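Quick board copy: two proteins, each given as sequence then C-alpha cells.
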Amino acid sequence: MLQTVSQDFSAAQLNSELHEVETAASRPDGRTRILVLDADRVFRSATGRFLADHGFLVFEADSAGGARELLAQHGADIVILDVKIPGEDGFAIARALSIQANVCVIIVSELGTEIDRIVGLEAGADDYLAKPASPRELLARIRAVRRRAGKAIQIEQPSSTCYRFAGWTLDVERRVLRDAQGNVTSLSEGEFSLLRTFVERPQRVLTRDQLLEYARGAHSDAYDRAIDTQISRLRRKLGIGNDELIRTIRNEGYMFVPKVTLR
C-alpha cells in the first residue's frame, strides 16, 4: 500500500534512519525487501506488481518523505530510485542510501544521458537504468546486484568482528572490551552501544542527535538525553583524559580520535 508523508526530508535524515537495516537472510521468510521510490504512479505501480509477482516484498513511495517513513518502519534491501523527486536532490538521496550496509541502490530514471549515469554511479548507485526500462531487465539487474552484495559480505566480513584501538579490543559479537593485557572491562548496554558507534565511525564528528540515533535499539540508557554522562563514563572506564580518545568538538559534538583497525 502506498504511503505518502508531507514532512520535510533530507539525505542526512535518511542516513540516520537506515543504520539498523537487516539483511534478507535474517528474516524468517527470507524475502528481499524492495522500496520503489518514484513520483510516476504508473511506473511505480507496474514495477511494484511485477516484482511482487516474482517473490519480492515491495513497498512504494511517491515522495522522499513517504520513503523515509517506510524505511523507518520496514527497512529495505534494495531501493529502486528515480532521481527526479519533486523538491529533492535525488542524487543526494542515492548517496545517503549507498553508504548504508546491506542497502543496494538501483537508479531507474528518465535522466539517462551519459553524464547522468556517471553522476548516479559516482553517488554510489549499484546500477543505473534509463527509462523506459524493461521489467525483465530490471529483474535481472536486481538479481545481479544482490549476488554481488552477497559476495562482498562473504569476502569482507571477518569471522569475528573485533575493533582495535589504542591498545583496546572491542569484540562486537561477544560484547566484550579487553585492555592490552586481555583483562575484561565491563560496559553497560548504553556504554557498549556508544563505544561501538564510535569505533565504527572513527575520526568523524558526530552530533549528539546522531549518537542517539546510532545507539537506538540498545538498552534505554543508551539513548536518553544524558549523552554527555554516558561519554564521561566511557572515558573513565577507558582510563583516558577528556580529549585523548573521545574529543569534544565545541558546538558540534564528539569525535573518536584514534585509528581503528578491524581484526
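And the next:
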Amino acid sequence: AKMMNFDLNCSPPEEDEPGRQANTPPAGEEVDMELQEEVDMELQEEVGMELQVEEAVHGQAAGGQQLRRKRNSMLDEQRYAAYMALHTMNLARGGKFKRNDKKVVAQIFQVGVQHIRKIWTIAERQKALGQEVNVSTGRKGRCGRKGKDDTLSKIPTVPLNRRSTLRSLARQLGVSHTTLYKKLKLRKIRRHSNRLKPFLKEKNRRERIKFCLSMLDETTLAAPRPKFISMHNIVHIDEKWFYMTKMNRCYYLLPEEADPVRTVRNKNYIGKVMFLTAVARPRYDAEGNMTFSGKIGVWTFVQEIPAARRSEYRARGTIEIKSDNVNRRVMRRYMIEKVVPGIKKVWPADDTNPILIQQDNARTHILPGDAEFAEAVATTGLDIKIINRRLQILLI
C-alpha cells in the first residue's frame, strides 16, 4: 500500500476558479508584475524569518533554557514597520490574511499577537474615517502608570524602634522588603544615622554661649560682623586608649615568605595602652609654607618595673613595661615633665602670647590653679595656663 504524508498544521490551498489557471489573478483584475514580484520576495523573507524564529524557540525549549519574555510595548518605528508588513501581506492576499500572518509579525517583533491585531484595527478604523494612518502610541515624556505611594504616608505613624531596618519597617507596613528597597533607591525614603546627644539644661546652654563669645576678637566687636580669634595659642590635650594589636591584620608578603604568627594568651583580653596627646593649630606664612605643624607630642602612660619574681618566661629583675594607673598625681607629673617641655621645644619663638592648655573636666586632670604646675611653668619663662571645659560644652 502506498503511504501518503500530510501535515495537518498546514491550511489547505485555496481552490482556483473554474477555467482559470493556478496562481493567476481573477478576470477583470490587473496586477502589476513588478509589484507582484516584490511582494513575493518580501513574503519569502518573512517566511524565512518565521522559520528562524520557530527554530530559535524550539531550540531553546529543547535545550531546557528559559524562553525569552515578550515585550509589553513597541516603539513608534516598530509599530509603523509592523503595519507596513501587515499592509504588504494584505495586498498580496487580496485584502485578506492567512491564519498565522499576524502571528508571524508578532514573532518577528517579539511581542504578543494582540499588539499586532490592535495596530491593524487602529489603521483600518482611521482609513474608514478617511484619515491618515498613524499607529504611533502618542506617549510623550514620563508616561505610564504612576506608582502608588499610599504606603509611604503610613511611615510616620510607625514607632522609631520598629524602623531600624527595612525588614522591620516592611513588616509594620504590610509590604515586602523589596518594595521598600526600591523606594530607597528612588530616594522616596532616606536612611538616617542617629547619635545620642547630651541633655542640656538652661545653665549648659548659657555656658555654651559664653564659650563661643569668649572666642570673639575684642577689636572687632564694634564691626557689623565680629570675627573669631585665630586660636593659635590654644593647646588641646586628651587621653586615648589604643590596643596593642588587632584580631585580624593584613600584611603583604613575598611568595617565599613564611606566614607571620601572632599569639596572645587570651584573644578576648588584648593588652591596651593609654596615650596622652597634645596638639595645636598649624601655622603658615604668607606663601602658604608651613612654619609650625601644631604637633607637640604623644606620650604613653607606662612604667618600667623590674620583675619581682622569676618565671619560665623571664628571670627575676628583668625590666618589664606595664601600663601606669592614671590618676591626678600621674597626670601632674606628665604635664610637668612631658607637656610643658614639649611646648617649649616646638613653640614658635616669635609668639609671645599666653598659651592656653584646654582639657576636659575629667577627675584625673589637674586643676587650673595647681601650685606645682605653676612653679614648673615659671621656670620655663612661658606664660602657660590651664582652662577646663565642661562635658556638655565639649560633646557635639
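Board note added afterward: Residues 1-8, 10-32, 53-66 have pLDDT under 50 and may be disordered.
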